[in-house]
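Repro case for the chain-ordering regression, as requested:
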Amino acid sequence: MDSPSDESLLARYRTGDAGAFEILYARHRQGLYRFLVSLSSKAELAEEVFQDTWLSLIRSTSQPQGRASFRTWLFQIARNRLIDHWRKHGIHNPLHDSYDEQLHGQPDGSAGPEQLLSLSRDQDRLDAALQALPEDQREVFLLRLHGDLEVPQIAELTGAPLETVKSRLRYAQQKLRRLLAEEVPA
Amino acid sequence: MTDSRNPQDPNDDVLLQHFRQHTRGEPPASLDAFILAAAHREAPARQPNMWQRWLQACQRPRWQMAFATVAGVALLIGVVMRSPVPTPELSTADYSASPPALARPAPTLAAPAPIARFAMAPQADSAQVQAEVAGAAVDAPVAKMSKQTAATLPFLEQGLQEILRLRQAGETKAADEMLLRLHKRFPKEDLPAQLEVLQKR
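-- result from build under test --
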């Protein structure tokens, strides 16, 4: 039997089925939390935005509109909440920085496919590599990584052109491969 | 990057898998508990389905009265519409099952019914019995007719008969007075002629 879709679970919760929310929450809690921690770089802020996101979903009566999936909708709510927090506290929104992708997206000849098997597994190094990415590239990569969103969904969520999202994602992955590459013992 | 939906090459997918496998970080258990408790607390009231709504309606006194009334009317109509005509088999069984003692006439009866006598004397002359039956059949309507005619006799004829009775009893004075009263009441009638006709009967 196919598991129920996110949208049907949300609809069931809206009619009073609290168990449907538990399934929905279990599916997305980890990805959303990791997305927020990586994007904000602060665990406390991530927890606050995480809580606000789920509470607004609980208290709202709205549903994903149009072709938007529940996941896109959820991550968009979280992203908007984070941006609201930055605005509220007078923090410059790093996601709106203009970025010269050509300059930062130089081809990296040292990260060949043969080195993929030797990517660092160290958690701190993974985190450091993510933090080393420009904000807009990091956001796109994190939405792909933790939200499991496709490029068109990311473009819709961020409001960026499709080709821009593609290039951001490509440059982010090239840089991550370079940063995480380890020497393979001979 | 040949597909807009999946721009990554297989190496990019490996990179994503690598991050997914080695990235840690979970929301605190207290945060999970808080959000789930809020979800349960603020979940909309569950809407009952049609069957549950029907049951709830049945539990309300007003609807109970309505349902009871409808059921009572339906029962009444069912009873009224049911025809109590016995089947032929049933009537035959009733007659055949009647005890012989009931078929016989009671000894105290002074005048048994003709049909009973017919059953008691099968050896009697059939013509005589038929005559008796016919006579009984005729007597009953005549008696009934005499009662009806006595009740409906005109006042004039009753008065004339009374006059004849008085004359026969020798009370001629009373008879004359009654004749006078009748004459006042029916001045256009030929009372002496009617008295003669009545006397001749």
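Ordering looks correct now. Chain B has a mean pLDDT of 71.
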